[in-house]
Amino acid sequence: MTSQVDRRQFLTRAALGGATIVGATALGSLAPEAAFGATGPSVAPGAPDPAFAEGRITSISGSTIIAAGSDGTLNRIQTTGATSAWKLTPTSVGAAQVGDGLYARGVRMPDGTLAADALWLNIVSLDAHVVTLASDKVHLDHQGSRITGHVVKGVSAAVYNGTPAVADLSLVPVGGHVHVVGAWRPDTAEIDVSTVYAKV
Amino acid sequence: MTAVIGEASWFCCGTAWGPCASAGGGACGNCSSGKHQHAWPTASAACTSITDPGACGVGLTQRGCGFVHYVTNLCNGKEVGSSIADCGPNVHQFCGERTCCGSSCGTNRIVDLTASAFSAIASLSSGLIPIKVDTVA
């Protein structure tokens, strides 16, 4: 896994350094799950991580994404053929749209641009109370707000008691607490469910 | 403190978008998704009364805002240092919850990392990971 990350970082740096990269996948599959952890220089505990960016996408021009950070920072994010992306499922950076929320991890370049190793689009990670459950949706309370989670056929899964994920969400405990990873539907109180972690 | 084994997730912290929009600066007032920080269930006596790790048989030393823990992902050995910035997770709501990577398992949710801290040791899409928490790197 580490070697995959290192290869991705190499590809990112090479791409931004002017080397021609004709399809990163020519060097082998770069699984999105392996794209994390590009730690770069060590970050002091409690300090901002220069290799990380957050915000909502305000424009996309070619391989450059501009995202307005929630703290007011404007982030310029450069994607390459080696950048992995997640938007409910592992996908390509082409799935990014204006209005999407994002988290990005990569390499901070001298001009302030973040060369992205990985993008997570609209991803949310929530502890929630299950209010109701149906075959196509689950209603959740998260910190006092109601969130509708849409069950996406072929995608949504449940992990019960740490066992491998299964497609059957029927055992998700109504009235119980769960952890949910999903993709926010921008400007709504709705998400598409990726995984529900539940103890039954 | 002896290292503690458990589970970690990541959470809304500071200003953000989507369902995280309502998250404030956390119990310590300075929590931000871009900083290497975390929520700790015994960040204060009041915090402990809410998260109640004892209900799950978990004993955690009370540590306040700014205290540094080193969190190791047991799936890959990656470690991140982060400071306490909030109270949480609500341990008692997830008693017995277990996450494994092969034979490396963590039981009970004992730490929530910010997105930047979590992504330094795991993919944000991982959800829950087994971890070791220590006071030294």
What would you say about this model in short?
Chain A contains 1 helix and 13 strands; from the N terminus they run H-E-E-E-E-E-E-E-E-E-E-E-E-E. Chain A is mostly beta strands. Chain A has 2 domains: 4-36 and 51-121, Nucleic acid-binding proteins (OB fold (Dihydrolipoamide Acetyltransferase, E2P), Beta Barrel); 123-198, Beta Barrel (OB fold (Dihydrolipoamide Acetyltransferase, E2P)), CATH 2.40.50.140.
Question: What would you note in describing this structure?
Answer:
Chain A: This is Cell wall protein. Chain A: It comes from Catenulispora yoronensis. Chain B: Residues 25-137 form the Expansin-like EG45 domain. Chain B: This is Expansin-like EG45 domain-containing protein. The complex is a heterodimer of chains A (200) and B (137). Chain A is mainly β and 200 residues long. Chain A has one helix and 13 strands, in the order αβββββββββββββ. Chain A has one helix at residues 2-16; strands spanning 52-61, 64-68, 74-78, 84-87, 89-91, 101-108, 114-121, 123-133, 137-142, 145-150, 157-160, 177-184, 190-198. In chain A, a hairpin with a 5-residue loop joins β6 (101-108) and β7 (114-121). Chain A is elongated. Chain B has helices spanning 45-51, 115-119; strands spanning 4-10, 37-40, 68-73, 79-87, 98-101, 104-107, 109-113, 129-134. In chain B, strands 1-7-2-4-3-8 form a six-stranded mixed beta barrel. Chain B has a two-stranded antiparallel ribbon with strand order 5-6. The radius of gyration of chain B is 13 Å and the shape is globular. The mean pLDDT of chain B is 94. Chains A and B meet through β1, β6, β8, β12 and β13 of A and β4, β5 and α2 of B.
Order of helical and strand elements of chain A? HEEEEEEEEEEEEE
Sheet with the most strands, sense and barrel status of chain A: 5 strands, mixed, barrel
Overall mean confidence score, pLDDT of chain A: 86
- The strand order across the widest sheet of chain B is 1-7-2-4-3-8
What is the CATH T-level topology of the largest domain in chain A?
OB fold (Dihydrolipoamide Acetyltransferase, E2P)
CATH superfamily of the largest domain in chain A: Nucleic acid-binding proteins
> Biggest interface pair, residues each?
A-B, 56 and 54 residues
Number of strands of chain B: 8
Name the helix and strand elements of chain B from N-terminus to C-terminus, one letter apiece. Answer: EEHEEEEEHE
Question: Taking Cα atoms only, what radius of gyration of chain A do you get, to the nearest Å?
Answer: 18 Å
Tally of contiguous helical segments of chain A: 1
Domain Expansin-like EG45 (chain B): 25-137
Protein name (chain B): Expansin-like EG45 domain-containing protein
Organism (chain B): Catenulispora yoronensis
InterPro entries (chain B): Expansin/allergen_DPBB_dom, RlpA-like_sf
